Fold:
Amino acid sequence: MDEFSFIQSIQQSYYRQPTLRKGVGDDAAIIRPSGEDIVIAKDMLVEHVHFIKSAMKPYHIGYKALAANLSDIAAMGATPAYYLVAISISNDWSNEELAEIYNGMKSLADRYKVDLIGGDTVSGTELVISITVIGYANRNISRLRSAAKEGDVVFVTGTLGDSQAGLHILQNAGTYKEEEYFKRRHQLPSPRVEFSLGLQQINRVALNDISDGIASEAHELAESSKVGMVLIEDKIPVHPAYAQFDSNLQYNWKLFGGEDFELLGTVSRSDWELVKQRAQQLSLRLTEIGYITNEKDAGKVFLQQENGKIIQLEKKGYNHLSR
Ligand SMILES: Nc1ncnc2c1ncn2[C@@H]1O[C@H](COP(=O)(O)OP(=O)(O)O)[C@@H](O)[C@H]1O
Ligand SMILES: Cc1ncc(C[n+]2csc(CCOP(=O)(O)OP(=O)(O)O)c2C)c(N)n1
Ligand SMILES: [Mg+2]
Ligand SMILES: [Mg+2]
Ligand SMILES: [Mg+2]
Structure:
């Protein structure tokens, strides 16, 4: 198979999005939007950084690459519509493996009716997948990291630490409780798109998706909103089988581990009931984990420990350029 037949093989036979004028097959794609805000995000997945072949099947790699991007669209309260994929891949990946990478992306794309409208293909050394996602958002809602206000409830979806626990299991042979669950959370993360779209009635919700670890994303919210944040340690939600891991690992993964792709948010106390209702309708776990303080703590995040002591949390997490 050459580059041209490969591009032919990944083309959709039809497109679902009504605003598309031209998809794959010309010098660029054309969209004619209908008045909503356009939301654009990009995230890469790189071999040896985001995955190793022994822990991730080609299908998982494609799935996770698109999931990470959809997670950022969800964190902006937007409806995903299109994606573009740039892939650099070496010859030791077979045609079947390449097709499986695209099948992984396709399964999520089908679920959210997102159309593949372009990309680029290069033969390189390590596998690199760079995706751009385009979505639409209602002009009147704000999901910005800068939207948190004093007195807001701080909440998080799902459970934290699962993805890094899954990676640990994949890299360390042994017997584990709920092994399949943790591996799945690492390989096939769920972007919280439906939950985010369910909040459209609420004008102001500050949202950030957890890719680098909650400590890091909590700081991004606090810095951007110029407020302080208090997180209550024993409220941070974990899976019941999480207790099997060493307590240091538990602590590090849930606070600094990342790749859970859950949503961290803040909302006024008066809108909190509605947020809870939406999560309940989706059977999605949602936990109140803290509160927002005022501008005198601007940019700071505190952890109220189990013994009641409050410590300042470091802005630590996955950080690519820390050297
Ligand atoms: N190399 C880059 N060039 C331009 N903008 C970048 C680059 N890397 C990151 N950004 C931008 O910086 C912001 C934060 O990026 P990042 O921390 O990767 O966000 P996220 O964790 O939500 O994926 C985003 O607006 C992103 O588009
Ligand atoms: C082999 C391997 N080592 C380590 C990790 C953990 N890891 C890699 S990147 C990352 C953070 C998320 O990636 P990033 O590119 O920072 O995503 P973004 O914040 O831009 O969405 C984590 C936790 C992994 N998934 N696989
Ligand atoms: Mg990013
Ligand atoms: Mg993000
Ligand atoms: Mg991201």
Observations:
- The chain is about 30% helix and 25% strand.
- The longest strand covers residues 79-89.
- The domain at 145-312 is CATH 3.90.650.10 (Phosphoribosyl-aminoimidazole Synthetase; Chain A, domain 2).
